[in-house]
Amino acid sequence: GAGVSQSPSNKVTEKGKDVELRCDPISGHTALYWYRQSLGQGLEFLIYFQGNSAPDKSGLPSDRFSAERTGGSVSTLTIQRTQQEDSAVYLCASSLAGRGSTDTQYFGPGTRLTVL
Amino acid sequence: GESVGLHLPTLSVQEGDNSIINCAYSNSASDYFIWYKQESGKGPQFIIDIRSNMDKRQGQRVTVLLNKTVKHLSLQIAATQPGDSAVYFCAENGNNQGGKLIFGQGTELSVKP
């Protein structure tokens, strides 16, 4: 079946602009995660959605970052007033369940964001 | 703070040799560990996982070992192939951390033909 998809694959923007990154999880997966990966670094947790529960936003680096998940499926990560330090690969993952479970997280290909 | 780290940032091996990638974790409450492989320009790909009630788990050409006493995790790749060249990340799903994973910095594995 189809895996996690993300769009766009690449995004170049100017400092101060807003950007929206999209994630389509695997069908039937109730948990969705956003991570950020800076060049040559590991993945940094941003936000986590589990079913209808309130999202875990503990990893968002500032209030310029927000995310929504509509209808329990597609998610959008929005970065307002982008800064150069926001440049990174933004990865989305989904799993069957979450919240303390051990279900495997499957990752999408990521969106490479470059802020000029 | 909590972290998952790797002992070696780079590893170069000869094709056909076995590879061992190591990882140290700091959260003793972690009960689930995963190894991911990431090729250039791609998202992390699940390789193998292990729960804290086990100390060894084998897959196809890969074995994960867990030593809870010293909080150490390793990934062994048998008969390493050029296609194994990638960055390998260990991650923990620390207990009471919700669903999020805590990743290490990664080890780059380079396989020489």
Keywords:
heterodimer, A: 116 residues, mainly beta, 6-stranded mixed sheet, B: 113 residues, 5-stranded antiparallel sheet
Explain this structure to me?
The complex is a heterodimer of chains A (116) and B (113). Chain A is mainly β. Chain A is built from no helices and ten strands. In chain A, the strands form two sheets. In chain A, strands 2, 4, 5, 8, 9 and 10 form a six-stranded mixed β-sheet that branches. The mean pLDDT of chain A is 91. Chain B is mainly beta. Chain B is 0% helix and 52% strand. Chain B is built from no helices and eleven strands. In chain B, the strands form two sheets. In chain B, strands 2, 4, 5, 9, 10 and 11 form a six-stranded mixed β-sheet that branches. In chain B, a hairpin with a 3-residue loop joins strand 6 and strand 7. Chain B is globular. The N and C termini of chain B lie far apart (40 Å). The relative contact order of chain B is 0.34. The mean pLDDT of chain B is 89. Chains A and B meet through strand 4, strand 5, strand 8 and strand 9 of A and strand 4, strand 5 and strand 10 of B.
